[in-house]
Design a protein that fits this description.
By secondary structure, the protein is α+β, with helices and mostly antiparallel strands. The chain is built from 3 helices and 5 strands. Adenosine monophosphate binds next to loops.
Amino acid sequence: MAYSYDNQNIFARILRGDIPCSKVHETAHTLAFNDIRPQAPHHVLVIPKGAYVNADHFARDASDAEIVDFTRCIGEICQSLGITPGDGGAGYRLITNSGDDGVQEVPHYHVHILGGRVLGRMLAKG
Ligand code: AMP
């Protein structure tokens, strides 16, 4: 399976610096910024800097260094937000939408970190 990456997608433009973002964290392989339409008091998007369309593409083609960096970034951001349950935080939810049924809007792999309130059940009915 080969994915075709649209380098005009909004997150590609953020990565190029063409449009601004509210940056939360950055490493060699990963960028995190606040979602422009927050669904919770904390709503951070974590994206790899590499051109990956979705979670499957990232899992297949990203290097070990990219995957480790991305995963650790999520942990570090949750720590810095004070929402990590193991450190007395109240918890959070990670979401990644993929493809049509996942209702993925932006075709650059990203994980949503949501926290700061009780988030309710995982899925609304319907
Ligand atoms: P998804 O449905 O998982 O693809 O969600 C894409 C997310 O990107 C949505 O939550 C949008 O609010 C968010 N988003 C779109 N454009 C921007 C932007 N320029 N800066 C920050 N977040 C954005």
